[in-house]
Design goal:
The protein is of the alpha/beta class and 241 residues long. It has helices at 14-25, 51-62, 72-86, 104-121, 132-138, 141-144, 159-170, 182-192, 196-213, 220-225, 229-240, and strands at 3-8, 40-44, 90-94, 124-129, 147-152. Helix 4 (104-121) links the parallel strand 3 (90-94) and strand 4. It is elongated, with a radius of gyration of 23 Å.
């Protein structure tokens, strides 16, 4: 089955994409017992993945009881049966880069397991992770061949970035229109490093300041004064030293 890998630096919106997919396509038997079968299941690969933990995490998301004494064979049978009964067509694996924390042998076993689930249930895999996740997937040639890949690059100074900033600013609860020049846009990119979450945080903080001061708009000057909280703390610590 066709599969997809989505790579991006931390803060680029991968988790929001996962949540969007969950909201749109995940249906549980409890919520709609007589409705369409579930199409999508999202599993976060927390900790150091291995074969037993992978099945345990899938069963936990399905709400199935887990017998700690169950053998791997029993876990496989239970997992496959439940996924098949629910009609899951897409298995989304978030934080796939955590596989790199496992030993080489454990990585091979996890990837073999994913291939088996995909083949046995005719389901597609969608993996989300930071750029290092590419290394994890590409290390298994047979698995890598199944995946198309999409990267979420950091924002750069182009029309799309301008449209993003304008969209954010227009939706802020400010009484006056904010008019930013190229200078302000460059400042946002410089401070945020082009990371989506940092851009949103910077503009949100600037909006809060604008409300508190009565300015009621974001200006180039306000953005020039802006310092991330983490950077301010580091400067204070340096002075104390």
């Amino acid at each position: 089955m066709p599969s997809l890998a989505v790579y991006g630096d931390s803060g680029m919106g991968k988790s929001m994409l996962v949540e969007k997919f969950k909201d749109d396509y995940t249906l549980s038997a409890r919520e709609k017992p007589h409705g369409p079968k579930a199409k999508l299941l999202v599993v976060e690969l927390a900790g150091r993945p291995n074969e037993r933990r992978l099945f345990a995490q899938i069963l936990a998301v399905l709400g199935a009881p887990l017998n700690p004494r169950a053998t791997i064979v029993e876990l496989v049978r239970t997992t496959v049966r439940l996924l098949d009964d629910l009609g899951v067509q897409v298995l989304v694996l978030d934080e796939i880069h955590n596989v790199l924390a496992a030993s080489w042998r454990e990585q091979r076993v996890v990837f073999n397991t994913l291939r088996y689930l995909s083949n046995e249930l005719k389901l597609s895999l969608v993996c989300f992770g930071i750029m290092e996740a590419r290394q994890a997937i590409n290390s298994d040639v047979q698995l890598a061949r199944r995946f198309d890949s999409i990267s979420l690059p950091r924002w750069i100074a182009d029309k799309e970035f301008e449209q993003l900033v304008l969209a954010i600013v227009r939706n802020l609860p400010l009484k006056e229109p904010s008019v930013l020049t190229v200078k302000g846009l460059r400042r946002i990119l410089l401070v945020s490093g082009g990371v989506s979450s940092s851009i949103f945080l910077m503009l949100n903080d600037a909006a809060i300041e604008a409300i508190e001061t009565g300015e009621e708009r974001i200006t180039d000057e306000a953005l020039e004064r802006y310092k991330p909280v983490g950077k301010t703390r580091r400067l204070s610590n340096d002075r104390r030293r």
